[in-house]
Each structure stands twice: as C-alpha cells, then as structure tokens.
C-alpha cells in the first residue's frame, strides 16, 4: 500500500469535518481543530517509531515531541540535515520535550530533522523529516526518495546568510572602523609558532593598526634574531624584557604603549586569516555596549568551533586560509554573547579600557583568568562581550607553558574567579549553549562537511557596480570567466525600481537578492538612505572583499564613503570603461587594490 502523507490525509478529511459542524468555526477554532487533527495524524506517520516516539509536531518555530513512558533519564539528540544541532535530557517519568527555534539556522530553506536516543543509539525517525521554518508541520511531507538523497546536495551548497543578524551600521558610525588599533603579542619561546604568527599578521592585517611584539625574556635562542628582523619595520615595535614578568604584566606593558585607540590581545601561538581584524572590528562596533569581541578557533576552549572544549581538526581538503575564508563567507555574522572574552585573540574597545582599565596584574600575574576577571569588571559597568563567529584564528595552545602548567594556572585562576564572581560559572553555562551559539556551531559543521565535496576553491569576492546589463563592462562573458579563476565575481545593478545582487558562475549570472526602491534615476533623500542601508547590509552578509565601481548611474552617490566606512577597498574605473573588461589588467588591479590595504606590507621584505 502506498504511504499517504499527513498533508494528504488532512486534505481528504478536513472538508468532511467542517461540513459536520453545526456552525461555521471561527478562524481561531479552525486552526486549533486543525492542529489537533494534525497531531493525531502525525502520531501515525509511517516514519515515526511506534515504540519510543509517541508524537512529533512542528509549529514553525518549535519542535515538540512526546516519548513513551520510561523509568530512566533519556537524552534526545537533535540533528539537522544529518549534523548534530542540540540535545535535551528527558527525566524519568517526563514524556514531553521541545526544541525552540527563535530564528532559522539557515535563511529561506527547509531542513531535515533527525532524532536519536543516547546512549542507546536508537533512531526515533528512520529517515529525516523535512520541515521549513515559519511553516507548521502539516505542510511538511514525509521524507521521499528525493529527500533521502538531498543531504549530499545540501552538503555541496553554500549556506544562505542570516539576514536578520545584528550587524555593524556604517551610517550610524561612519568612522568606527578607522579607529587605530594596537595589536599586543606577548612572546615567550616557541620561535616557529611565533614566526608563523607574525607572518600571518603581516599577510592579513588591514586598516589602521600597529603591531607590538613583547619578548618576555625567552630562553629560546631563536627568538631574539627572529624579532630583530622586524625591529625597524614601519608599524611594528619590538620590546624585550630583561627578566620574565609573566603574561598579564606584558599585556599591561602593551597597554601603556597604546594610550589611544582600541587594542587586540593576541597569543603568539596563533595564526590569523583574511579579514580577521575587520571582522573583529565590525563585531565589536555592532552595538555601543559591546566591550570585547573574540574570534573563534580550532582550539580555544569555549571559543572552539564546532565542538566546545576540544581540538577541532580543520578540513583536510582545505588550507588554513581557505578554511578561514569559508567561515568569513558562510558562518553567518553570528555574534553569540558570553560573560567573557578570551585573550588568545580578543578585541578590546577604548571605551571599555577607559572605564575599567587593564587586567589585574597582581591576581593573575601569569594569565589564565585575567581576561575573565577583566571582562567581568567591564560587564558590571554595563559592557557585554561577543564572539565574532566569522573570524577563525588557529591556536596551538599551551605552546609557551605546556599542558601541565596551563592546567595548574587555570585552576588557580578559576579559584579567584569563583570567589570574586559567585554567579560567573552559571552565567557561562546559560550562554555557552544559547541558540545563537548552537546555530554557529551547526553552520561550521555544515561548512566543514561541504569541504568534502568542494569543486571550486574559495576566492575573494568582488562586487562590480554596473548600471544595466547592456552597459559597457557589465556582462563581458569572456572577461568574467577569466576573473572567476582568481575571484568570486558578483554584481550590483539597477533595473527601474529594483536593485539586484547577482553572482557569476559557469552557467552565467544567478540572482541572489533583490530589493525595491524608488526609480533608480530619481533618488530622493529617503531613497538614498534605503539604498545605503541595503548596500551596507549586502556587503557584510555576503562577505564582499572589494567593490569595483564601473558605472554609478542609478546607484547611490555614497558608494565610496560607504565602502570606506565598511573597511572594504573600492576600485573606481568609471573613467576607463574598457579597462573593466580587460581580464589581465583588471585582475592585476584587483590584487593591487586588496594588497594595498596591508598595514605591514613593507615589513615583508625584511630578513
């Protein structure tokens, strides 16, 4: 017998039910009655286990399940599209449990729900049940053959950005991303890791910044000659302690050499990637109350992704830089909150420094707890702390101290924190598993799985500003194919009362987003504002690395200022339209424009 979906059964029986009513039910009664019938039908769905799972219901934002009676605690594990998402403990004698979804883990798409009981490893659903955010379960069909094979297709797709995420607004803070930053790097031994750290900073740091390297009397003989190579490099300062004073003293020393601007505290056993500082800046300035923004890592305790408190191997199919670019483009601009930052890579705003000062040197002389105390003092004055989910920084961890000493220092620091902030650990627990953090970790799992099927290397994204498809430089296919070898080409064009965001692929242009505005050539102040907001949002959500202004007709007159406020370089070839189609020349200009923003480019020739 062919299986009949819940939707099909409801469609068949609902007219008969409504005809039997003595009066026409109200809209609310109609919905209540329909939900009850859907629930009873879902209980009999052929893919629901009759032994463990009594019912399952999706109302668009909540997954509610009912288990059979049991006498022991059960752990229900929820997976989306075959990847772990969350879990709940169901105590003995309790049968109902639910998972709330305040927003969709990926914008605009459906996802397949799987449920499993642990530690028994019992699958409650033999195959994924596909639902869509915002739509009740009565509209979801049981898994079909097409759905069963779609997990592979999902793994090959880019994650749609979360367009309702809180983002930096250049219209409200046009100069925020141009505040000078001092990057403080305390150093103690581990010369090979230190060299990688410095080279990555030179390669990927953009915007107004200076680098402060502090040698804390290293016993590694290779440290001194290594730092000497950078001693006279523009934008780089090297300090050397005559005796070892400890990590927190070095941070305090660095702060004394940074009386103005913001600060980044960075461990010497890290490797930053493309747009790392820009991502931290944007996260820190997304709201005025944010005091610190910390990167995510493969190995940084609570800031590790996708698995907490573990070392997470990076995808073998990608290099470190490709993995970092993947998170930059697809992690979703999520900034989960925590009661603390982490000094392995933590951006600190000047407003917080002015309010609470630096870390407590006396209580945490060697580190391990100093940033937690620092952030807690700031939180008590009204500041909050966020994770920049799209900034991945590799971290060797314990390279200077070793695992045993790190463990000892961590225990000592935690004892001080517990005494000073009795509610700190509870606050960490309440935020560490927030929905926003679960979505971030799930998206990273999704990104890492996609590496297995990736056919095209991840490249910097270039947004070409054109008027119409017929305009010069707008749609030269041969040039675009050539550009696409090194860059991911996008374009923004104006059509009557619509602006379109499109992405180029082998098959041609693919529409990604569209927005309605007033006629493009008849801008009023309100229209300018709406255009600017749309442009700023799209550039951030779709991780644009470079804006290429080819034809500004129909577009905002603020594109140059907006790009600068967003920290994105802009190449203007309006006076040379033919150049926009010369692949070799324009590719060179793209690379030159991107590289020109390096803070320490001149230091690359040193040593």
UniProtKB/TrEMBL annotation:
<dbReference type="Pfam" id="PF00535">
    <property type="entry name" value="Glycos_transf_2"/>
</dbReference>
<dbReference type="GO" id="GO:0016757">
    <property type="term" value="F:glycosyltransferase activity"/>
</dbReference>
<keyword id="KW-0808">Transferase</keyword>
<comment type="similarity">
    <text>Belongs to the glycosyltransferase 2 family.</text>
</comment>
<feature type="domain" description="Glycosyltransferase 2-like">
    <location>
        <begin position="182"/>
        <end position="318"/>
    </location>
</feature>
<keyword id="KW-0328">Glycosyltransferase</keyword>
<protein>
    <submittedName>
        <fullName>Glycosyltransferase</fullName>
    </submittedName>
</protein>
<dbReference type="InterPro" id="IPR001173">
    <property type="entry name" value="Glyco_trans_2-like"/>
</dbReference>
<dbReference type="InterPro" id="IPR029044">
    <property type="entry name" value="Nucleotide-diphossugar_trans"/>
</dbReference>
């Amino acid at each position: 017998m062919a299986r009949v979906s819940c939707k099909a059964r409801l469609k068949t029986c609902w007219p008969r039910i409504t005809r039997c009513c003595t009066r026409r039910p109200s809209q609310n009664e109609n919905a209540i009655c329909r939900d009850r019938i859907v629930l009873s039908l879902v209980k009999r769905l052929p893919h629901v286990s009759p032994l463990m799972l009594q019912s399952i219901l999706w109302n668009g934002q909540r997954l509610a399940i009912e288990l059979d009676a049991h006498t022991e605690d059960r752990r229900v594990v929820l997976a989306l599209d075959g990847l772990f998402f969350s879990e709940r403990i169901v105590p003995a004698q309790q049968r109902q449990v639910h998972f709330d979804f305040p927003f969709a883990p990926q914008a605009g798409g459906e996802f397949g729900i799987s449920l499993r009981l642990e530690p028994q490893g019992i699958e409650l659903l033999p195959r994924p049940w596909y639902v869509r955010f915002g739509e009740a379960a009565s509209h979801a069909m049981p898994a079909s053959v097409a759905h069963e094979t779609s997990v592979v297709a999902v793994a090959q797709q880019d994650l749609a950005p979360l367009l309702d995420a809180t983002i930096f607004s250049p219209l409200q803070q046009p100069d925020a991303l141009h505040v000078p930053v001092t990057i403080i790097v305390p150093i103690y031994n581990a010369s090979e890791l230190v060299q990688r750290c410095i080279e990555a900073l030179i390669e990927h740091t953009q915007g107004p910044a200076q680098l402060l390297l502090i040698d804390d009397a290293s016993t590694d003989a290779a440290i001194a000659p290594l730092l000497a190579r950078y001693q006279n490099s523009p934008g780089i300062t090297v300090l050397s302690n005559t005796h070892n004073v400890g990590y927190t003293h070095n941070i305090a020393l660095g702060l004394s050499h940074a009386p103005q601007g913001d600060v980044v505290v960075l461990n010497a056993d890290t490797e930053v990637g493309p747009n790392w500082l820009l991502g931290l800046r944007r996260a820190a300035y997304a709201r005025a109350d944010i005091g610190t923004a910390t990167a995510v890592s493969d190995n940084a305790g609570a800031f590790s992704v996708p698995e907490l408190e573990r070392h997470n191997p990076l995808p073998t199919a990608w290099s470190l830089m490709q993995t970092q670019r993947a998170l930059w483009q697809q992690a979703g601009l999520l900034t989960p909150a925590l009661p603390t930052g982490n000094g392995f890579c933590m951006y600190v705003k000047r407003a917080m420094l002015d309010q609470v000062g630096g870390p407590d040197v006396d209580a945490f002389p060697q580190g391990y707890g100093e940033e937690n105390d620092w952030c807690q003092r700031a939180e008590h004055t009204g500041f909050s702390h966020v994770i920049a989910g799209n900034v991945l920084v590799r971290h060797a961890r314990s390279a200077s101290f070793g695992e045993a000493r790190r463990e000892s220092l961590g225990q000592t620091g935690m004892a001080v924190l517990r005494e000073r902030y009795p509610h700190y650990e509870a606050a960490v627990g309440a935020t560490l598993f927030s929905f926003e953090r679960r979505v971030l970790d799930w998206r990273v799992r999704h990104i890492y799985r996609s590496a297995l099927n990736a056919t095209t290397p991840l490249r910097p994204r270039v947004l070409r500003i054109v008027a119409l498809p017929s305009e010069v430089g707008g749609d030269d296919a041969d040039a675009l194919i050539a550009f696409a070898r090194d860059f991911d080409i996008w374009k923004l064009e104006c059509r009557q009362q619509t602006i379109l965001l499109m992405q180029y692929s082998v098959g041609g242009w693919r529409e990604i987003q569209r927005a309605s505005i007033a006629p493009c050539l008849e801008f009023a102040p309100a229209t300018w504002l709406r255009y600017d907001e749309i442009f700023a949002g799209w550039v951030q959500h779709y991780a644009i690395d470079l804006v290429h202004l080819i034809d500004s007709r129909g577009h905002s007159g603020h594109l140059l200022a907006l790009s600068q406020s967003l920290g994105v370089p802009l190449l203007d070839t309006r006076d040379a339209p033919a150049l926009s189609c010369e692949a070799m020349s324009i590719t060179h200009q793209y690379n030159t424009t991107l590289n020109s923003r390096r803070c320490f480019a001149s230091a690359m020739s040193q040593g």
